[in-house]
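# nightly structure sweep
# worker-07 picked up a monomer target from the shared queue
# config: single-sequence mode, recycle default, output format = structure tokens
# input follows
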Amino acid sequence: MAWVYLFIAGVFEVVWVIAMKYTQGFTKLLPSAAMIGAMLVSFGALTLAVKTLPLGTSYAVWTGIGAVGAMIAGILLFGESASLPRIASAALILAGIAGLKLSA
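# output follows
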């Protein structure tokens, strides 16, 4: 169950990062509230995951999901570059996440 909590934490990290972009410096109420709510869910789920999983593994997987998810969101939602080096770098992050999962 800890891996499920960790996945949820990572997904909500992506949600709050996307919401942060839409807050426009906390000048928009709804995106700001969504960001804070998603942060609470993300940190709460991460807290549940680290009860069982090693802290270093949990944090690395959480930030990896967030980094790759934010990059994908940037490409899909904000027209950011989908260059081969960016995609390859994200693939390396995913390989690291898989390695941590397999070694835990």
